[in-house]
Amino acid sequence: MAKHKKAPAPSVSELLRLVPAEPVDLAGIDPRGTPGVTGGKGAAGDAQQELAVQLADLQERLYASGRTGGQRRVLLVLQGMDTSGKGGTVRHVLGQVDPQGVTVAAFGRPTEEELHHDFLWRVERRLPPAGSIGVFDRSHYEDVVVTRVRGLVPRSTWSPRFGIINRWEERLVDEGCTVLKVFLHISREESRRRLLARLDDPRKHWKFSGDDIDDWGRWDAYTDAYEEALRRCGTERSPWYVVPADRKWYRNWAVTALLVEHLTALGLEWPAGTFDVAAERARLLTAP
Amino acid sequence: MAKHKKAPAPSVSELLRLVPAEPVDLAGIDPRGTPGVTGGKGAAGDAQQELAVQLADLQERLYASGRTGGQRRVLLVLQGMDTSGKGGTVRHVLGQVDPQGVTVAAFGRPTEEELHHDFLWRVERRLPPAGSIGVFDRSHYEDVVVTRVRGLVPRSTWSPRFGIINRWEERLVDEGCTVLKVFLHISREESRRRLLARLDDPRKHWKFSGDDIDDWGRWDAYTDAYEEALRRCGTERSPWYVVPADRKWYRNWAVTALLVEHLTALGLEWPAGTFDVAAERARLLTAP
């Protein structure tokens, strides 16, 4: 009988990546799922510690490359329903790396000035510089989701944006930017629980308004809009990843793992110095 | 015999603040000192944990206030000799708070464009927005220190800058910005050790050049330039703090404590909501 080689375990990226251009059925993905984790929360906690060390090391290499002429950068796009944990992901995942190498841009309601430009103008301005990890907490995808669901712009405006976004992201990839797009996938029931918890906590009232519950009431319309965006803007070079997000520990583990895998793929080495180590050492040691 | 009330322990700010406008003698301040810490490194580690929780809470209040119309912001200016630990302070101290509420600006050699503007132009552009903590890793103080020591501009250029800086910082304070200026005070011997360690670590070569050792050789000239800057730009509303920095654990503890004390002084409350909690709760609970 022929011996079969055991296939290597799939990467987290492979487990969570949507197949580009294929129809997306979010109802078929369990928001409480934990793909890639065996052993539950405890095991993930240990793995998270290790990943944090790797991520810090990789981020420093990225930063070093940017400071020595490299053009690599990473853009992490976070999308998801309200309460899906975009802010928590920034705090817990990006909180693991040197703040010096991270830029965070949160996109809310556009300003007057932003509305006088095309929809990519404001995101273009917040792209990370070479050597940095940039995070978009909401992004240009709001312009094919919230604007559509709330009827802020007509179909003739939002519909061409899928193609515009694809060409724009392609350009970023061409220029050395890794575009890592993550949809935080939360269930309607978990979202209801989190909204209720916010109402119970006066420290969270400032970030709450009746609009949030209006939007929660439009869950199905948002799901439809997201499914179309994930399908039409999932490309080979800039695919979408769906991270089950009902469990915060899994969400943090998975986004950390995605970052680690994408940064590892860049194969970054420490830049060499441009000086004579022995000579500089001698100068230091012989000085009074 | 009259009973004397025990004086309260001085704050870290009081312990480390330079008296405005008085002559500064850095040789008289021990770089291995640990003012405010009793019990050494272990005790400071425990205290650091508590301070980290306080800092995260205060930062979130600051952020909330900024998102609801408040104008408060904090600018942490880090200066010090090369190897004094500015980068490490950013990583360890600011790494304790939500990256969303922190902006970090590192100022290196000015670009061509920056040189075509006055020296405050580039720092003005990197000021933190309302609700944020901004960190300057090096700052406008380079323009009265390194430019002077290296002879890049004549005295007639750098000398008037002390007054210009004071008026500019005064404006920031007027506008609701807390200006927290920290000089990381390291000894020449510790600096030599750290430079040698960098030479021994190929992962650090990219941030090293012979210029660093040239500058290290000008230790006394840098000390003189700093002493004058600390004296002439230490004002009542924007004083300088000298943090002994030979011990990294103390440096991290002290800068965290300074931030906590300055943020506490702002007396920030959680902004109130603008909605009817009971009504919103009912809407959530009655939805299918």
From TrEMBL, chains A, B:
Region listing for Disordered, in residue ranges: 26-45
Pfam families noted in UniProt: PPK2
SUPFAM superfamilies for this protein: P-loop containing nucleoside triphosphate hydrolases (SSF52540)
Keywords assigned by UniProt, alphabetized: Kinase, Transferase
Organism expressing this protein natively: Motilibacter deserti
InterPro entries (UniProt xref): P-loop_NTPase, PPK2-rel_1, PPK2-related
Domain (Polyphosphate kinase-2-related) ranges: 48-264
Record protein name field: Polyphosphate kinase 2 family protein
Keyword set includes Kinase: yes
GO molecular function (one): kinase activity
